[in-house]
Design brief:
Structural class: mainly alpha
Shape: globular
Mean pLDDT: 87
Strand order of the largest sheet: 1-2
CATH architecture of the largest domain: Orthogonal Bundle
Number of strands: 2
Strand content: under 5%
CATH superfamily of the largest domain: MetI-like
Largest sheet: 2 strands, antiparallel
CATH topology of the largest domain: MetI-like fold
Number of helices: 15
Helix content: 55-70%
Number of domains: 2
Length: about 325
């Protein structure tokens, strides 16, 4: 006898199945009106009003010249985009955003993972207190964080430079926000200090979901903490890492508060980032069309960098 071939649903069968699914969804919606309205319809409406519409209007505005006051907008086509591609301040801001992203991936993400692993491995005292202390800056306003570090890093009476001098490291003292070579990195580290608690919490929860038997087996085979981190924990934390990298990406590209409070783009615009450039062009230079163009560039950059960084992490990360 011939082996029976697998049967695949025909087009009619698939159409019937889809029709049944739509019918069941409609029946569920009629039976659960409250859930349908407040669990589905209302969130969709709020998303379209407060996220979808602003994005579409920003894209629309990027094709116009408008000072924010006149009732008539002048259509200029792709002139704003052409100007942006030749604007040196745009490239300075873009470079600073990429530097900020690199520091954020190297500092708060790695540090958050190491702290989470140390707490799960019971290598620290009072882990609950430590976890609370590290997460607390996440709840603080970045404006407050910026003002605090302006005092800490003040080159005259700041606590950080005073400690360096007391330790005989006075040669390291510098204008942390006045030296354009280190200012953007200083801002990124300050932002990373405030952000470290979030990756730490994600990794702490993720490591807790890794089967204990996996660590026990690695320990029996003679694996140390470094090997267990790299060969046991990290491979099983791909979904967590994907989420953390995504959050870090968005946090880096929407940087604004610290620059507005601490440097205002100084010295000589060397600490401008794309978000602050949008603010300057729109509200200081009254060029809302060009500000919208830079906003669109941020959106495109977010999608592109997310696809580049997270493509491999998401591939198979959520397989069940």
């Amino acid at each position: 006898m011939h082996a029976s071939l697998p049967r695949f649903p025909t087009g009619i069968a698939m159409a019937a199945r889809m029709s049944d699914e739509r019918t069941s969804f409609v029946a569920f919606a009629r039976q659960h009106v409250f859930v349908t309205i407040f669990g589905l319809a209302l969130p969709v409406v709020l998303f379209l009003c407060f996220i979808g519409y602003p994005i579409l209007y920003t894209i629309y505005l990027s094709f116009f010249e408008w000072n924010g006051m006149t009732p008539v907008k002048k259509f200029v086509g792709f002139a704003n985009y052409s100007y942006m591609l030749g604007d040196k301040y745009f490239y300075i801001a873009l470079e600073n955003n990429l530097k900020w992203l690199a520091v954020s991936l190297a500092f708060p993400v790695v540090l958050g993972f190491l702290i989470a692993y140390a707490m799960r491995a019971r290598a620290v005292y009072f882990p609950t207190l430590l976890r609370t202390a590290i997460f607390f800056p996440v709840t603080m306003s970045l404006v407050a964080v910026g003002l605090m570090f302006l005092l800490i890093l003040n080159p005259i009476f700041g606590a950080f430079d005073s400690v360096l001098r007391a330790l005989g490291l006075g040669f390291m003292v510098r204008e942390w926000f006045g030296d354009y070579r280190v200012a953007i990195y200083t801002l990124a580290v300050v932002g990373g200090w405030a952000f470290t608690g979030l990756p730490m919490i994600f990794y702490f929860a993720g490591i807790g979901d890794v089967p204990k038997e996996t660590f026990d087996a690695a320990r029996i085979e003679g694996a140390g903490h470094l090997r267990m981190m790299l060969r046991v924990a990290l491979p099983q934390l791909r979904p967590v890492t994907a989420v953390v990298v995504m959050l870090t990406l968005f946090e880096s590209l929407k940087a604004f508060d610290l620059i507005a409070v601490m440097t205002k783009g100084a010295p000589f615009g060397r600490t401008n980032v794309l978000g602050y450039l949008v603010y300057l062009e729109s509200f200081w230079n009254s060029r809302f069309g060009y500000g919208a163009t830079v906003s669109v560039a941020i959106l495109v950059l977010s999608i592109a960098v997310a696809a580049l960084l997270l493509g491999k992490l998401f591939r198979g990360a959520f397989d069940v």
